[in-house]
Write a structure and sequence with these properties.
This protein has 409 residues and is mainly beta. The protein has 2 helices and 30 strands. The strands form 8 sheets. A 5-stranded antiparallel sheet has the order 11-10-9-8-12, with no helix packed on it. The longest helix has 14 residues. It starts with a helix and ends with a strand. The N terminus is likely disordered.
Length: 409
């Protein structure tokens, strides 16, 4: 009997890699354009570097309807991950109604697919949230004729689709989980939330009449004239808020929830302007628990004339993403190939220099940072003072469109 138990244990922890912790990525491009749609896949990255498609999450268009606005109803419109809720959600383009797909990060599988019921107003934005007493939800932020309304669809697989739509109180916005901005250029998703700040530092969503339970210290607002405030990241550990004003220095402030203290993000950041003179809605900042990851970006000018690593860019579109060369070609943003990491818990900063504009941090977990450079994923261990040497995890064409990652435990 003991021998049988020992053999089972050996299978669980050594001979059965599918039972061990495993890196997965979501490969796809979230595009609000129905002319250039892309498929999305759940991709498994094995310990030996083998890359395989574990599941099709959103189908891409067929060759007959790729450039036909009327027939096209597939491709990814929105993708986001809420690690605290252990869920990822994808919204395909749809005809009249947006359906959504839920991926459970614990099982690395699709656990729910639903259509949105008819909603009373057009949806402007989507968010992920943790609703008190009801669990994780996909939230539609609707707006029409000066009125704003929220509706939530529960992600719990045990709740049938027809019973998943729930009314939301204005205070439910305090449960929004804001992951940040993924990808490079416009290949990922940005789920920032605009929340006005007054002169005393209070953050209030006026249309909903809700004031957030923290306020920016007045000295940290010094020198800013009527700033626009945006929640860039909000998870269980921290809140990162961007402050933007035309005549004042721009800054990112971080609220550490464990001790209720405010800090200024000490890694390079500037407000970037596009070729048409419009500023980007949010920096390429993402959150992973106590860590903030920033992809450095600059406005194209004499000091930063072009994005780094042009010779290695993909110049054709694939099933899951666009031509990177075309995306960078006419853009007013320059990516120099520097990835910054800030450990809020210990107030330490790190920099990864890739010298490749098509690169981004995908995940920080268990003392390891995973990052993508073109179609390869690398990892480094995080120590007190420095990052360990980079190690190649895997290389495959489909990894060039990996903008979200998680470890299935």
């Amino acid at each position: 009997m003991f021998k049988r138990i020992a053999l089972c244990a050996l299978c669980l922890f050594e001979a059965c890699p599918q039972m061990r912790a495993q890196l997965h990525v979501i490969a796809g491009t979230a595009s609000d354009s129905r002319v250039e749609p892309f498929a999305a896949y759940l991709v498994r990255v094995a310990d030996d570097g083998t890359v395989s498609r574990a599941a099709s999450l959103v189908p891409g268009p067929s060759s007959q309807n790729r450039h036909n606005r009327e027939l096209y109803t597939t491709g990814s419109a929105w993708i986001d991950v809420a690690r605290g809720s252990n869920k990822a959600v994808l919204i395909p383009h749809g005809s009249g109604r947006d359906n959504f797909v839920v991926v459970d990060l614990g099982t690395a599988g699709v656990t729910k697919k639903c259509d949105w019921p008819d909603l009373p107003m057009p949806t402007l934005y989507y968010h992920l949230a943790e609703l008190p007493g009801r669990g994780p939800a996909l939230v539609a932020e609707m707006f029409a004729e000066g009125r704003e309304k929220l509706a939530g669809m529960l992600l719990d697989k045990s709740v049938p689709c027809e019973s998943s739509l729930v009314d939301m109180a204005p205070t439910d916005i305090l449960g929004l989980r804001v992951f940040g901005r993924t990808g490079v250029s416009d290949t990922g998703t940005s789920d920032a939330v605009n929340v006005p700040v007054d002169a005393s530092g209070r953050l209030t969503q006026r249309l909903w009449g809700v004031t957030f339970p923290f306020a920016i210290p007045e000295p940290m607002l010094a020198g800013m004239v009527n700033p626009i405030s945006v929640i860039l990241v909000d998870n269980t550990r921290l809140v990162a808020i961007g402050l933007f004003a035309k005549a004042s220095p721009h800054r990112i402030l971080v609220y550490r929830k464990s001790d209720r203290t405010w800090h200024r993000l000490p890694i390079p950041y500037e407000r970037v302007f596009l070729a048409d003179g419009q500023s980007t809605p949010a920096p390429w900042l993402t959150g992973f628990g106590d860590f903030l990851a920033l992809t450095e970006a600059h406005t194209k000018d004499a000091d930063f004339p072009e994005t780094a690593g042009k010779a290695a860019w993909r110049n054709t579109r694939t099933e899951t993403g666009p031509s990177i060369a075309e995306r960078f070609k006419d853009e007013g943003v320059v990516f120099p190939g520097k990835l910054h990491l800030y450990d809020m818990a210990h107030e330490r900063s790190y920099t990864i220099t890739t010298n490749q504009g098509d690169s981004e941090i995908l995940l920080v977990e268990d003392g390891v940072v995973y990052y993508r450079v073109n179609d390869a994923i690398y990892k480094c261990t995080i120590s007190d003072a420095v990052l360990g040497p980079p190690q190649l995890v895997a290389k495959s064409e489909i990894l060039g469109d990996a903008h979200w990652a998680f470890i299935r435990h």
